[in-house]
Every structure is written in structure tokens, then in C-alpha cells.
Amino acid sequence: MEILAFGVQADERPLIEKAFEGRHEVRCLDVFLSEDTAPIAAGYEIVSSSVNSDLSGRVLRVLADGGTKMIAQRSTGFNNIDLDVARQLGLTVSRVSYYSPYSVAEFAWTLAMAVDRRLVRAANRSRDFDFRLHGLMGRDMHGRTAGVMGTGKIGEAFARIAHGFGMQLLGWDLVQNPACLELGMKYVEKEQLLAEADLVSLHVPLLEATHHVIDAAALRSMKDDAILVNTSRGGLIDSEALVAELRAGRFAGVGLDVYEAEAGLFFLDKSLEPVTDDTLARLVTFPNVVVTSHQAYFTQEAVGQIIETTVCNVADYLAGRRSENVLSPA
Description:
- Pfam families: 2-Hacid_dh (PF00389), 2-Hacid_dh_C (PF02826).
- Belongs to the D-isomer specific 2-hydroxyacid dehydrogenase family.
- Keywords: NAD, Oxidoreductase.
- This is 2-hydroxyacid dehydrogenase.
- By secondary structure, the protein is α/β, with parallel strands linked by helices.
- The chain has two domains: about 1-100 and about 300-330, 3-Layer(aba) Sandwich (Rossmann fold); about 100-290, Rossmann fold (3-Layer(aba) Sandwich), CATH 3.40.50.720.
- It is built from twelve helices and 13 strands.
- The chain has helices spanning about 15-20, 55-65, 85-90, 100-115, 120-125, 155-165, 180, 190-195, 215-220, 240-245, 280-285, 300-320, and strands spanning about 1-5, 25-30, 45-50, 70-75, 90-95, 145-150, 170, 185, 200, 225-230, 255, 290, 325-330.
- Strands 8-7-6-9-10-11-12 form a seven-stranded parallel β-sheet, with helices on both faces.
- Helix 1 runs parallel beside helix 12 (about 300-320).
- The longest helix has 20 residues, at about 300-320.
- It is globular and about 60 Å long.
């Protein structure tokens, strides 16, 4: 059987081809699954999608009409999939429920340190042989307070790093993580965490209840010199409200690996095209903001696990087995 994989990155392609070798043929496309590209999948029973694919009801209907019966998403998040329509159409949809939490947690810390110690500005100056220290002063993290919003596997890994820095830990989640409690984490309400934390890192999934969990009011409640990091999903932060606070001169730094309108931008080369997203264009101009292109997960270990789980999900579908990775049928 030949499988069609959308949104495959250049570094990811040889890993996918090797993982499926001897099992199934796989056709890798660098274009993302959308309403425009969905017709390409006609005749393919199994389609693999990436995190920024559009799996709205319209796209799912095009896939189903073309003969697709199984969608294997190569990510943990699935807020881009209309599961109600998928179930109505009888589509099997799977995801990757787990991969290396260290990839994202370590990258979140990379962003935190980059904005705290002004690394991007310093590197850019060095290229011009400007080695002044003016404007590059950061702060010790030791002794400060880290607020971890979402204390699952990734949040726990982030908290362990913060603990290693000698930081006080505040947590916010529906369920308390015993491992985080052992580190000395104190679980508090969101309002208290935002008001007291010097560093806030987001590790919650994007759901209806968490959309814009960091809104204008939440941003105003944070310390003026706080650091905010988001390596989860862009929709957790109200981007326009964030721009307004940054324009007012607030926050020591903001590190964003995700953006709420990243679909159609991230993973693509837009350097020769006119900038049409005014909010993102404004964000990247602030000297205390670092924006990266949804790369926190992009390590050899994490991508390898994602692909291997996808291979297993395909094998389970063909064998009629069900695992915790199956989202549809319910």
C-alpha cells in the first residue's frame, strides 16, 4: 500500500522513508494538507498530516470522497481536526500521544535564556564587530520564580530544569503532578501565578477553555519585567493584546515558538513575499522578542519517535487494532 504524507520537512523525509521501508510505500509532499491540496489524496486510503494541516470539515469531506479512510497525524495536538465530521464520515484518525518531552522543554528554556541574556542582539552586533555591552544586561534566574502553566510531561521537564537553576516553582493545572510536587512546586490559581512569576512558560493544550488563556487582562496582571515563553500552541496568547503591552514597554522578554495565525506561514519561505500579517510583523520588530518557527519539537529523538508512532498507528489501523492514539472513531 502507498501512503501519502503531507507537510514533510526536508530533514524529516529520509526518516519517514526509512521507517516505512519494507512495510509500505510512502509518497512525501512538502505542501501542507488544505482544501486546495486535498484532491491530491484521491485514491489514497491512508494519508499522513502534519501539525499545521487544515483538517476542517470541508477538507475531510474531500478526502473521504477521494477514498481516504485513515488519517495519521504526526503531532500530539489535534485542534486542527474537526473530529465530529471525521466520525460522521467514518474516518479513522490517529495522533502521536507522546514523544520526547525534553525537546520542547529544553527549547522553551533556550528561548527564555535567549531573551533574558539578549543573545540574538549580541550575536547580530558581533557580526558587525560591535562588541559593546550596552543594552545586553540580563538577570540571574537563580532565586527567581518560574510559573509553569500545564504540568504534564513537558511542563514537568521544564520544571526540573527550573529547579536546577534554583528557582521557586509555581504551577497551574487541573491535576497536580506528584513529580512536580516533589520538586517543591506550589500549585496556585492562574491569577496568582501570573502576578508572582518572573518567568511564565506555557505547556497546556489548545482547547476551547484555553484559547487566549493569556489575554489582555492576564498580560496586564504579569510583572512589568517578566519573561513569557510559549512553545505549546499560538492560540493560547492573544497576539494583538501582547503587541499592545510590548508597545507600552512591558516585559523583559517574550519567546514565541508558536503563533496563533502561523498556518500558511510557518515551515514556509515567505522572505520574498509582501508581509500581510501586521501583528506578526510588529512582534518580530521588538528587541525583547524572539520568534521561531514551531521548531521546539524538532530534534532527532522527538521526530524519530513521532514517525515510529505514526508507523505503528498505520499498522494498528490495517490490523483492526485500537490504541490510545486513536481519536476517531470515538
